[in-house]
Every structure is written in C-alpha cells, then in structure tokens.
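Suppose a colleague, Dr. K., hands you the sequence of a protein chain of 89 amino acids and asks what its three-dimensional shape might be. Before reaching for any lab equipment, you can write down a predicted structure in token form. Begin with the sequence itself:
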Amino acid sequence: MRLKSIKDSYNFLNNEKYYPLYLLILSIAVLFFQLDGSIGNWDEAIYSEVAREGLLKSSWIDLYYKESLWFEKPPFVIWLTMSSYKILE
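The predicted structure, expressed as tokens, is then:
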C-alpha cells in the first residue's frame, strides 16, 4: 500500500504539465531570496534613464538625467546601454 502511494506521488511530481509551475517556484526562490536587497536599489533605473535621454538628445559625451548634466559615474556602462538601445530600436 505504501509503495503505491510513493509511486503515485512520484508520477504526480514528474508530470510534464507541472514543469512551468516548478520553474515559477524556482524563479521566485532565486529572485526573492538571493537578491540581498537589490530590488530597493534604483541605480539601474537611473542609468537606463540617462541612456534613454542620451539617445533622445543624440549626446554620447554629455549625459543628462532629468534635463540636467549628469557626471555621477563613468560613462562606459551608459554607452553600452545606449548601444543596446540603438541596436534593439
């Protein structure tokens, strides 16, 4: 009797239609328990906005954030982001 229930539960867990559910659970576990608080860090949003404004103004040297010059960080990462925006446009 016990062998049948273990076999049934194994067949239930190994069913391919539940793989997306397993992937979702794994993704949630990785994203929310291993981030060490980087969700609250808004630097990535600022960098993407600087890259977007740089593309809108066609300015690769002078970088802007909220319509004012922005010299907080070195521009290499911003240039890479601007390049990827340009390619994926």
